[in-house]
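Worked example 3 (structure in, sequence out).
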């Protein structure tokens, strides 16, 4: 019951309420992988990224075929200065679901931040191939700032808008 309640609160954009519901679950079972994921996702939503890492790491390890814990984990790792680990987490998710454009787009962002132009462009091209709507996000995505003056990046962006 508390799990469904927490899910509902997250959907409604009420993460503090979700966290209270999850505390009731922790009193019963602190080893349930989905509960760990929900706790981590709730903490991520509350921008408590460092706190979210531990439950998300455990959830990802215990739910290895589910991309959601990996996505949330990568998100938190990036925001806590653990870019190398964030890339690893999203690459694990790509291995699980290579057709998910979001993963490729985020990896393009992360590789851009890591100053690896080749990988950034490869992942961006793949994201746009899977879902051309991602082209709308490129201009406003600050993670690509280091590539904006690059002719290859500009050509890819130009081609994506055709």
């Amino acid at each position: 019951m508390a799990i469904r309640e927490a899910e509902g609160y997250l959907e409604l954009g009420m993460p503090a309420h979700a966290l209270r519901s999850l505390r009731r679950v922790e009193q019963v079972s602190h080893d349930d992988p989905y509960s760990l994921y929900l706790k981590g996702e709730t903490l991520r939503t509350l921008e408590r990224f460092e706190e979210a890492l531990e439950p998300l790491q455990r959830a990802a390890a215990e739910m290895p075929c589910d991309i959601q814990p990996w996505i949330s984990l990568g998100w938190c790792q990036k925001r806590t200065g653990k870019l190398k680990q964030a890339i690893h987490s999203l690459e694990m998710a790509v291995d699980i679901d290579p057709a998910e454009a979001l993963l490729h787009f985020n990896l393009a962002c992360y590789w851009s931040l890591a100053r690896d132009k080749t990988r950034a462009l490869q992942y961006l091209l793949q994201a746009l191939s899977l879902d051309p709507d991602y082209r709308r996000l490129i201009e406003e995505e600050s993670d690509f700032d280091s590539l904006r003056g690059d002719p290859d990046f500009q050509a890819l962006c130009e081609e994506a808008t055709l």
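Notes: The chain has a mean pLDDT of 91. The CA atoms of residues 65 and 96 lie 6 Å apart.
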